[in-house]
Amino acid sequence: MRSVSLLAAAFLAALIFVGVAARAQARLLDEAAPKAVGRLNIGGQGHCTASLIAPDLIVTAAHCLRNARTGARWRAERLVFLPGYDRGAYAALARGAEVVVPEDWTPETVARDLAAVLIAPSIDPAPEGVAPFETADLARPGLAVWTVSYGRDRPEAPSREADCEVSARRGDLILTTCEATPGVSGAPVLTDTPDGPVLIAVAVAAANARPPAMRGQAVAVTAGPVLSRLGADLRKEVR
C-alpha cells in the first residue's frame, strides 16, 4: 500500500473536503470474513489482497503486480490466489493464467490502478462458502462501507474493518475512512445490500500515511468503467 499524501491533498482540495467524517473501527481479525477475499501471493516475494468477482476472475491493485526491483509486470503464473486464507488454511488454490491492466496505467495514475487476473483452474464449482462478489458503481459520500484485507501487520489472517464510510469521490477515485496500511492494497471496499455484500471499489493507496506504521485512509478505485473494461479486455485476450 503506497502513500499518496500529495495526491490526497489535491484530491481533497478539489472536493473542498475538510476532515474525516467518521472514525472506523479498528481492523479486527475475522474468521467469518467472506471467503471470496483472499491473499494474493506474488512471486514468492510478497502479497496483496484480492477478491473473486467471477468463478475465474479476481481483481486487485495493478501496482501489486509490478516488480519493484525491475519495474516489469509479474507473469501470471507467478501469482497464487488463496481465497479465505487464514493461518495456513484456505478454501482453494488458484494460479494466475492471464493478467490485464488498463493500457494507460502507470505507477503515477492512481485512478487506473486496477488489475484483473484470470485464474486457472477457475473456482467452479466453488468450494462451500466461496461465492464471487457482485460489483456495482455505488460509491457516494456518506455511504457505509467495510473492508477485508491482509495487511502487513496481520498477513496470516483476514482482518475486517467495519463502520467506515466514503468521505469523498472524484471521478473513479474515492477516499474512505477505512484504514490502509501495506498489504491492504487490492482489498475490496464493500457495502451491504439486501442481496448481500457488493464490491464497490478496490483499495489502492493510503492518504496521509506516516512512518513508521504507514497507516492512512484508504483511497480506492471504484467498480465502474475501469473495472468493466478490464474484464472485457481479458476475455478478448483469452479467446
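That was protein one. Protein two is written in the same sequence-then-structure order:
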Amino acid sequence: ELRYDLILAVRERSAQRAAAVAHRFVDTARLGGVDVDGWASCGSFSETNRQLVAHARLCDLAIVEQAEPGRPKPADAFIETLLMRTGRPAIVVPYAHDRPAVFNHVTVAWDASVVSARALADSIPFLQRASSVEVICVETERLPDDRARDERIVRHLARHGIDARARTISSTLSKPLAVICAGSK
C-alpha cells in the first residue's frame, strides 16, 4: 500500500523537475535565436493528447525522443499522436544520439496520400541539406503507373535541388504512411 501523501509528494517533485527541464530548454532555445512560446504540463493522458495536438498544429516543428527499448518514458505514449494527428512535421531524435543531427542520409516513406504530400513538403528544408535522399514508395496494390509515380516524385524533388532516388515496396498497411527518417553514417 502506498500512502496518498507520498504519491502527492512524488507527483510534485516530478512536476518540479519537468518545469526545471522545460525552463532550461526554453532558455537555451532563445539563446540560439529560436522563438519558443513556452511549455505546458498536463494531468491526464487524454488531456495531454488533446493539448499536444492543439499546440503542435500551431508549431513549425515538433521534436520528440524515440522510445528506448527496456526504458519506457511517459512521452513514449505520445509519439504516434505527434506523428499522425498533428499534421505538422516532427523529428524523432534517436535515444542513442551522441552528437547533433546532420541529416546526411534521409529516407522518405511515400504512399501518395495527403498526409504524405504534407510531410514531404514540410521536409524540403531538411532534404535540401542531405547528401542522399531515398524515397520509398509504398504500394498496397500494384498499379500500372507505379514507375511513372516514382519518376514524378524524383522530378518534383529535383525542382527543389534535391537529388533523390525512388524505389517501391509492397505493404499490407491500411493507414496512410508519412514518415521522414534521417540518419548519418
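The mean pLDDT is 80. Keep this in mind for the problem set.
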